[in-house]
Amino acid sequence: MENFFRIIDMILPVFIIMGIGFLGKKARLFSESFLMSASRLVFNVFLPINLFMNIYNAEGIEQVELPLVLYCISALIGI
């Protein structure tokens, strides 16, 4: 049961933010140009920063082998 509440603590903020965005679009609080700009900003800036910070702050990162990391990065950028 403890794991259930831990998962809810992690997932609930995401669903709340999605709900706010959904209701904001339904109420026409956001213009289409703002939504496109915000989407580009999130995917091109904030998600890569978040990914880097999560990897940088991960426990046990010293156990990850460099060739595996390089393979994953090259697969992501399509080499």
Specify the structural class: mainly alpha
- Give helix % range: over 70%
Helix-strand topology string: HHH
- The span between the termini is 44 Å
The average pLDDT value, as a whole number, equals: 87
* Overall morphology: flat
**Which strand-content bin applies to the residues?**
under 5%
Q: How many strands, which pairing sense, and closed or not: the largest β-sheet?
A: none
**Unreliable segments of 5+ consecutive residues:** none
Into how many domains do the coordinates divide?
1
Number of helices: 3
Indicate the radius of gyration in whole angstroms: 18 Å
Number of strands: 0
Molecular structure report:
By secondary structure, this protein is an all-alpha fold. The protein has one domain. Helices cover 78% and strands 0% of the residues. The longest helix has 25 residues, at 2-26. The mean pLDDT is 87.
